[in-house]
Design goal:
The chain has 296 residues and is an alpha+beta fold. The protein has 5 helices and 10 strands; from the N terminus they run ββαββαβαβαββαββ. The strands form 3 sheets. A 4-stranded antiparallel β-sheet has the order 3-4-2-5, covered by helices on one side. Its main location: cytoplasm. Keywords: Cytoplasm, DNA-binding, Nucleus, RNA-binding.
Length: 296
């Protein structure tokens, strides 16, 4: 028996089949009202990454159109089928499409490219979700008690040799670079899985006064922690089955299986993936194969 499986990644959705285009929105409403109405209508079909309301191009009739981006192509398709031709908050029926036909392209500003042919080999790597989006997505599918995070280690790496070598020497002796590295473990207790992520945050401080440095240190620690959480969620896939059941899969790396006692001194600058700060000249990562087998 075939089982429908929807794969959810903790990355910014870029596929066209996850974006719903809504048009024929009357100009009698404010953008704020339209935004709230569109969000309330379409969030019922699944978690939304983005809702954007825009005025029609000057060559078109007055009015608005909206872009609704889902994490799931199946949910975008379901929403399109269920809402097309219904008026909802206006008397005139709204129109919905996932792949906008060329006859309606005039509605969109020339600066916006909505329907362009894309080839997988030339697609840029999808960006990771923000820390808040990772939380919202995991809460939606797993519940508030379905996952947890804890800090494995958080270190001040400002004075590491590699950090000093990679940082520009300040002209002002009062200037200093503050840098923190963090390892966070995300755990999914109902699935018996966990994975770890690494985050780095740094900032140049132009004064060594304690009232300036101490708040900066607290902020950088939070940034490093949030980046580590995002890095951990990048290794997670959610498999949403047709019956509503959610299965979690994690990509386990070597550092993820180290014991906590083996992590002493592990957060060094040369252990941090610096490609996130300087992507130029970096070799492409080897393709990672996901094991999507599901035990029912």
């Amino acid at each position: 028996m075939d089982i429908e499986v929807d794969i959810i990644e903790f990355r910014v959705p870029t596929e066209k089949n996850k974006t719903l285009f809504v048009w024929d929105i009357q100009p009698t409403f404010s953008e704020a009202f339209i935004y709230e109405s569109i969000w309330n209508i379409f969030c019922k079909f699944g978690p939304l990454y983005l809702v954007k309301v825009c005025p029609n191009a000057s060559v078109a009739e007055p009015g608005f159109y909206a872009l609704v981006k889902y994490f799931s192509a199946a949910q975008a398709s379901k929403a399109q089928r269920a809402t097309h031709g219904r008026g909802f908050f206006q008397s005139f029926p709204l129109k919905m499409a996932i792949d906008l036909s060329s006859e309606y392209q005039y509605l969109i500003s020339p600066k916006v490219k909505l329907s362009t042919k894309q080839y997988p080999h030339f697609l840029p790597k999808a960006k990771p979700l923000s820390h808040s989006k990772c939380q919202d997505l995991s809460n939606h599918y797993l519940g508030f008690n379905g996952w947890s995070t804890h800090i494995v280690t958080l270190k001040d790496i400002s004075n590491c040799d590699d950090a000093a070598r990679l940082s520009t020497t300040p002209a002002d002796p009062q200037e200093t670079t503050l840098k923190y590295g963090c390892i966070v473990e995300v755990t999914f207790p109902r699935h018996g899985l966990s994975c770890r992520g690494v985050g780095v945050a740094e900032e140049m401080v132009k004064s060594t006064a304690p009232d300036i440095v101490l708040p900066k240190r607290g902020k950088l620690q939070r940034w490093a922690r949030d980046k580590a959480v995002v890095d951990a969620f990048e290794k997670v896939l959610l498999l949403v089955l047709g019956n509503g059941k959610v299965v979690v899969e994690c990509r386990v790396e070597r550092d993820d299986i180290l014991q906590d006692e083996d992590l002493e001194g592990l957060v060094k600058v040369n252990d941090i993936p610096w490609s996130q700060f300087d992507p130029e000249g970096q070799e492409e990562d080897e393709a990672i194969l996901w094991d999507l087998s599901v035990n029912m």
